[in-house]
Amino acid sequence: MRSERWSTPTRDLTLPERVAWVLGNEDGRPVSSLTEPAGLLVAAALVELLLDASLLDAGSSFRRGPVDATDPLLEWVAEGVMRSGGRKADLGHAVTGPRGAQMIRHTMDRLVDRGLAHREPRRVFGYLAMPVFGSALRVHETAALHHDRSVVRAVLDGADPDEDTAMITVLLHHGRRVRALHPVDPHGAVSRARAIASGRFVPPGIDQDIVRLVSPTVQAVLAALTATEVLSSGH
């Protein structure tokens, strides 16, 4: 999902990559300092797959669409969802446990592969060590991150969204991450994101996609994650 609003190094990011990217810290601290981001990243991937017609919403399940996913990360998500027949009731398996951790790692690996982030060795008890996923991952293109966060922040503060920034805003709303972008008026930004997630303040046609596909999909993924966590905590 390409947009000319993004910085030059990030114009070809997928939606899950972009979510992870804009939620990075502007001072260069680890982009992986997200808390439980797997559900939001899987939701972003499903949104892009649906908008590209690589997956189709068949009511209680997803099915393969007429357009092949060419991005490896998106195809990996599609394969995971279709592994159990695409049933929405099984979405919890895509965002929890080992597969959820893999989603986070794959997304962060893509940011490294694109040169947007890099891994740094750290010292553990005086010895250099490269930790397992995450802890040593830091933003490399901080100027690009500043620019891209300001693009999203502008929409939260009242600027007109295009398709891409509208989708990011919907994801941030349902993931309760709007305040992480430090908008000028946090309360106003939360209200505006809620309105965009309802199909308001967006160009014609995009409003229908949001109401019909995007918000319901994100809600379904995050609800599956919450249900799985509740069930797990009960044992």
UniProtKB/TrEMBL annotation:
Membrane-related topology note: Peripheral membrane protein
Major localization listed first in the record, in broad terms: Golgi
Record flagged with keyword Endoplasmic reticulum: no
Record's keyword terms, sorted: Golgi apparatus, Lipid-binding, Membrane
Subcellular location, record wording: Golgi apparatus membrane
Coiled-coil zones: none
Pfam families to which the protein is assigned, alphabetical: GPP34
Source organism, top-level taxon: Bacteria
Protein name: GPP34 family phosphoprotein
Species: Actinomycetospora endophytica
